[in-house]
Amino acid sequence: MLAFDLCAIPQQTHNFEPENSPSVPSQLDIMKILFLCTANNSLSQRLHTVLATSHEVTVEYAISDEIMISAATLAQSDLIICPFLTTLVPRQLYEIWMTIIIHPGPPGDAGPSALDWVLMGDDGSIDNPRELLQTLDHGPDQPGRTHWGVTVLQAIETFDAGPVWAFEQFPIDIDGVGMTKSEMYRGPITRAAVTATLRAISRIEDAALSTAHDYAGAMKSYSGCGLAIHHMTYSAYLKPRPDFGRLSVTEQLPFQGGRTHHRPLLKAADRDFDVTRHTTLQISRRIRSADSQPGVLSAAFGYPLYVYGGLVDEAIGQSDQPPIDIGETKVLATRNSAVCVATCDGKALWITHIRRPKTKTDKALHPKVPAALGLMQLGILQVEQVHQLHAPLLSRWARSSVITFQEVWVDLTLDTNANRTAYLYFDFCNGAMSSEQCSHLIDAMNHILEQHTQDTPLRAIVLMGGSYFSNGIALNVIEASTDPAGESWMNINRINDVVSILLHDFPQRRILTVAAVRGNAAAGGVALAAACDFVIAGSDVVLNPAYRAVGLHARCKRKRWDLSTSYSRLALTWKRVSASTSPCSRASDIRRGHWKSNVNLSPASLAQTRAQELSEMSKDFWSARSTRYHSRRHDFVRKVKPEQTPLRFATHRRLVHSAQYDEEELDSFDDVEYYEALACRRAADTLRDEIRKELGSLVAKWAESTDDMARAHRRGSVALQSEKAMAHVALPGIERKTETVFSCYYQPVEAPLTPPESPFQERQTAVLST
């Protein structure tokens, strides 16, 4: 039995548990479901984990109409679901297959910027969008909507206008602390989407069974898992009841948040702010409504930059530190690489991150980096100015009593049995932990260890994380570094130091370690949780130990995300505790980390294992094998649109492709000699292409030297390959056509910011030099 109160762990509110969620499916319940996604984001992953317990689910990226149509055919889909789709569904799909769209807005709301508008302050009272923008720009701050929702509707020719199969709603406070677009999407939007989608599927099944029309669902059979399974077909011509779009799933109430409208794309110019005339709340809403895509494009720092954060501060305005002027913007303070700026109403606001805008000559987006770091890279702030403006918290480790920017804090509690427990919070943007942030976390852990004395011992430490639990190393900071390989090495070592303290320092003092995974976790964040004695995860958390997908070494070849997963040598079984359960769990149900029971955790063994893992990681950063990591990191950070769906997601394509596995699922993925040979072949191909082009140019000049040869050349009797027609083989990420996933947001700016040398050119030079 645990000697401290696990039920005392603060929980994030989960108001929308799936209603009538399926358990063991009956023979008539099993569907073949195809996901069409612009990207496999947090909502699609969460919905996949829920539906895969009862149905066969496969995923296809919506790269083109042809690919989407072929996916539906190959998957032999009963139902197509679009959890996150920024393009129209082809007519050939929605006229044949029942296709449902998950729209992050209530019935009657439509448009690609649904969450952006509501977080900007749109309360539905103004119909005309231009008039609304004028009001939001010049009028007084209004409280905004009290509720928002998610609609599951059928795909038709017009965006977000099809028949509604289900909708769910939830209360919101658009000015609540931490209420950003991404936080709202991962939290209440995702939970409501799961609830509404499950109900929509149930209603579609009922409609197929009960309709009297000929098209309504003849029984068909297919073989699955060795069994002959009979189930309904689900026609695109099934009709939902009118009340499905009027009454929410859980409360059976009409939408409580006001009138809804079709709103257009919220453009960059519509969100821009002026610190000399916009209030703190106006600026905060604009920034938070654009998180994480695209950010607010603002010239507040003298150049057009996408800015992120938007946390209103209640303490810095009282500071006696003289500000630094950047144009009309007064920078009041810095803290942990964030900057605090003054606003016209005498208050202050934190900018946590910036991104340089893409220019017409850039092949991809720039990384999103901590604000102070990015401003120093651009020469807008100097290192000494950042140090000069540093504003420490009144108490370094206690939670601030007023709202301010704070990434790490410690809460020491004493329960009724006189057991002391330390709750360690670390709320890093997007869950990414840079070398500097890992050091900050280590300092907090050392502070906790100092509180453990013989007279006042600590019983346990509970890792609380933040809106994310942790997503491992900070790929954006690494990508922005002048030495990405070196920064990767520093970051992976520093996060290993964090894990080492959990595996050695706390157990040495008999302090229990608990990971309270309240938000999603990925990569090194999963390893961080696995290092603890107990792991308790929220009921809607998605765990994704995807090291290999980004090109990093991992001993296990994971073919998909899973809620019961393995990480390296730790065979990990996750205990999932629903926040709504009371009591949270029986003590007998919670076992101490049996995944570590057969693992040698002595200092010598830990050092040996760490050396082995880092020897492999060094190959990911510096050997010929590093091309896989550097190119994949580049594409992930810079939002490069994928060329195909990984086969571990698109299981419907495994049998028709000659390659049955993704590259990272093969043994050659870890073979340095394979990459050395590949680099040699590609370098030879590049050299051969250059020679052919040069020879072609010489032959063309010679042919033009005589009239006869020139006439023959014009008639085509001498066939010369033009430069455009030459075959070109490039390393991943080098001189290939790139397209941004969220291209509608990122339009090139006219005034470039002298961006660093293109990573494409750097990698090409490095390859050719080999």
From TrEMBL:
Keywords: Virulence. Pfam families: ECH_1, Formyl_trans_C. It comes from the Eukaryota. Residues 274-361 form the Formyl transferase C-terminal domain. CDD domains: FMT_core_HypX_N. The keyword rRNA-binding does not apply. InterPro entries: ClpP/crotonase-like_dom_sf (IPR029045), Enoyl-CoA_hydra/iso (IPR001753), Formyl_trans_C (IPR005793), Formyl_transf_N_sf (IPR036477), HoxX-like (IPR047180). This is Formyl transferase C-terminal domain-containing protein. It comes from Friedmanniomyces endolithicus. The lineage of its organism: Eukaryota, Fungi, Dikarya, Ascomycota, Pezizomycotina.
